[in-house]
Write a structure and sequence with these properties.
Strand order of the largest sheet: 2-1-3-12-11-4-5-10-8-9
Bound molecules: nicotinamide-adenine-dinucleotide
Structural class: alpha/beta
Helix content: 40-55%
Number of helices: 12
Strand content: 15-25%
Distance between the termini: 19 Å
CATH architecture of the largest domain: 3-Layer(aba) Sandwich
Length: about 375
């Protein structure tokens, strides 16, 4: 099979390279079995790039990301770089990539696997079979709106200002991502804002409603205020299929939804850009966890979030639904065999290292592909 799928791999810092190594093993498996071949290259980001190049990401790596069909990102950061200024911290690598690649839709699935149902702090009956997707607008809203800053007023007090601002096109493009995803899932979108107290929320509701009626009459659309959504995510999270919301509410609600599953080392994410004329969309896939400096170098990190990130990449960037499902099934099967890294360890299970978990996933893939 010709290698026409360009993939840029950016392992980063801490446990990033350790978990990424297990995923590159899966890419080798796909190639060896003639399932899929990728034109892969690697680059430095975060602290690793600061050490080698003096900056968290070089223009050359940004250019390579722009020229790739998908970017698989590990994690960046670590205490040795914490004292650097905000303009050269490792975390700037990911912000730069999001900005330069125009990645505006952050997809955060929250899925509870039967084998890990006890990892959630919520009761098993509430989270059993949970499978929701939160689509968060990630380049607009209050984190980027102007005016912003801290100013001194005439009476000597200071005032901090941030501005929640969304345009019709910003709302439409992220809502479109949510509607399209719902069509591949259970066909339901819940749009979340605070239309009761914020004009930007009112516009959000109007635009999403009009788009749904015009282009997605087959998708069931509902609306919810953000505070109620937080409550409902804890009370009855299974009522949701796809949730679409702005940057601020999405930041909070996606973390809340992640914790319904209880295991940081298991959850992937994607950030998508707008499709060009040919339908090609720039996209970046990464686990939601960070570089975990406390366990880096010990070989005990859970590689499954990075592995699920690869599955998302195959599904959303390359339409390789079957291959993505096979990787997800392989991960589920090793958990059903009772293998656990330390972060998801439970009584009676077998504790394994990062390498052992990766090898077990590849062995499961060999069986599934046989
Ligand atoms: P973290 O996600 O790195 O770690 C939180 C806790 O979860 C730690 O105890 C860690 O050991 C554990 N953990 C995380 N991933 C794990 C895995 N795969 N397997 C087993 N255990 C795992 O968050 P943090 O400690 O707040 O941040 C550490 C560094 O990572 C900081 O420099 C932070 O800025 C950075 N960070 C980067 C990203 C990113 O690259 N996108 C995201 C979050 C944090």
């Amino acid at each position: 099979m010709p290698a026409n799928k360009k993939l840029l791999i950016l392992p980063g810092d801490g446990i990033g390279p350790e978990v990424m190594q297990e995923v590159t093993g899966i890419l080798e498996f796909l190639d060896r079995r003639n399932i899929a071949t990728f034109d892969t290259s690697e680059g430095l980001v975060g602290g690793a790039s600061i050490e080698a190049e003096g900056v968290p990401i070089t223009p050359e790596v940004v250019a390579r990301a722009k020229g790739s069909d998908a970017v698989l990102f590990g994690a960046v950061g670590g205490p040795q770089w914490d004292k650097l200024g905000f303009d050269c911290r490792p975390e700037l690598a990911i912000l730069t990539l999001r900005r330069e690649l125009g990645l505006f839709a952050n997809l955060r699935p929250a899925t509870v696997l039967d084998a890990l149902i006890d990892a959630s702090t919520l009761k098993p009956d509430i989270v059993r079979g949970l499978d929701i997707m939160i689509v968060r607008e990630s380049t607009g809203g209050i984190y980027f709106g102007e005016p912003r800053g801290i100013e001194t007023m005439a009476d000597g007090q200071q005032r901090g200002i941030n501005t929640e601002v969304y345009t019709t096109s910003e709302i439409e493009r992220v809502a479109r991502v949510a509607f399209d995803l719902a069509r591949q899932r259970q066909g339901r979108v819940c749009s979340v804002e605070k239309a009761n107290v914020m004009e930007s929320g009112l516009l959000w509701r109007q635009v999403v409603t009009a788009l749904g009626a015009r282009d997605y009459p087959d998708v069931a659309l509902s609306h919810m205020y953000a505070d109620n959504c937080a409550m409902q995510l804890v009370r009855n999270p299974r009522q949701f299929d796809v949730i679409v919301t702005g940057n601020l509410f999405g930041d909070i609600l996606s973390d809340l939804a992640s914790m319904c599953t209880g295991s940081l080392g298991m959850l992937p994410s994607a950030t998508l850009g707008a499709p060009d004329e040919s339908g090609r969309r720039l996209a970046l896939y990464e686990p939601i966890h960070g570089s975990a400096p406390d366990i880096a170098g010990k070989g005990i990190a859970n590689p499954l979030a990075q592995t699920f990130s690869l599955a998302m990449l195959l599904r959303y960037s390359f339409d390789m639904t079957e291959e993505a499902a096979m990787i997800e099934a392989a991960c589920r099967s090793v958990l059903e065999q009772g293998l656990r890294t330390g972060d998801i360890m439970q009584p009676g299970m077998t504790r394994v290292t990062t390498n052992e978990m990766g090898a077990a996933v590849r062995a499961a893939l060999e069986r599934l592909a046989a």
